[in-house]
Amino acid sequence: THLAELALNLGQYSEVEQLVLATLPLLETAPSQSTRAAALPWLGKAYVRMGRYNEAEPLLLESELYYVAHGNAAEKTAIFNTLGILRSNQRRMAGAQHYYERSLAIFRERGYRRGIANTLNNLGSMFVRSDRPEQGRQLNQEAYQMARRVGERLLLALTLSNLGSVTRLLGDYAQALQYYEESMAYCREIGER
Predict the structure, then answer these.
(1) Within 10 A of 30 (CB to CB), how many other CB atoms are there?
(2) DSSP code, position 1
């Protein structure tokens, strides 16, 4: 699964598919389901990023069943967040909100600020896509405050970009431009495009 994770992080989604599909037959004979459960989310995430939602869904739901019963907090939040992204991309916003809120509850319980900020960003974007931009902006502002405490530049850049988008949508173009410029400054610092 480490190679699949690396390929996913490099944006090589077809490579993830090849790796996991080649491994799955071997995992069918494994004494534990945990190895299969560890492999499926990588393929599910790759399919989500490729827009292949119908293929992603059964893999992610199988992983959810396993991780709810046997997983640790990190595994649960990862699968909940990915299912939230899937549901949001499918325009199934009630389902997206359900999964994001499950993830957020675990992050808050554990005090994991980066996870809180990421999930608030996702929830905010979901509300914007649901024609509830004010709620989206509130969540993105909360995410920004949390991201500032974390201090990670990439997280700050993403959060400021989200704030720029929702603020532009709400008609405050000057403030939106300021958010975008701050986001770009962080991106330049870390070499992101």
Answers:
(1) 10
(2) -
